[in-house]
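pls read this stuff:
=====
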Amino acid sequence: MTVATAKKDTVLRLVLVLQLVIFTPIIIGSFFGCARTVETEVLHDTDTIIQHDTDTINFDGPAWVRFINFLTKGGVIVLKTELGTSISPFANATQLMGKEFVPIRSDSALVLYTEYFIDGSPHFDSLTIPSDSLLPSSLNTISLFQVDQDGETRIAPFFANDSMKKVMAPAGKTYFRFINGIADHPQPSPSVQLYLDDPQGTPLFVDGNGNSKPVNFLELRNYILIPSGVHTIYVRKEGEATPLYQSQKTFRPRAYYTAKLTGAKSIGNDAFSIDEE
């Protein structure tokens, strides 16, 4: 090896050492020093999937909402961000508890206009989702109830946090909740309790002390855990032995179900049903 070649090799080694000294901290920092955890939500029409990137949560995402309506005679409520028949719908509220959520800003108020029909006549109303009322990245159900106000038919929105959809149920369990959408039954107070398999057994919905807490009209009682499998759900007025309604269903493990009362006793279309979300 010549002297010139030896000097050239020495210079190359020095350059490599300098590159390692300079760039190694940057490379390491790109993997560790700037790492932050993000929780992202991918919402499909079949389910909600939570994807964890690392260990922290992204609190800057939108809020997510879905709708269900309790029109006495059934039908669809079309929700729009502006008035006018040519405006594309923001969402449609049916009487089925669907699986699709719509993203909205969580830091700004949102006014939605409702269009629906009763006995062939169009009705219009509006509802406001107040600013900062829904948490970023939260999942929410908005129930749209039909109420009479000063002789006029109005839409009354009620909000429920669906955060339990981010928590997997234990093995052999499923999530179950209930919405009371019947205003005229039972009388004199449209308040009911639900029972699993035995109409005279332990009520499903209780207060903090374990006492029965019946569900009133215009109320959504949020998710509780029940055993998976085939069960009959009974609806009963407390103090009366005979169930008002009942429905048998196969509850899949770790699935989500919304039971609901719809219609009106006075017109004969009252019903109890259970939707798998």
Observations:
- Confidence is low (pLDDT under 50) at residues 1-59.
- DSSP finds one helix and 18 strands in the chain.
- Helices lie at 3-33.
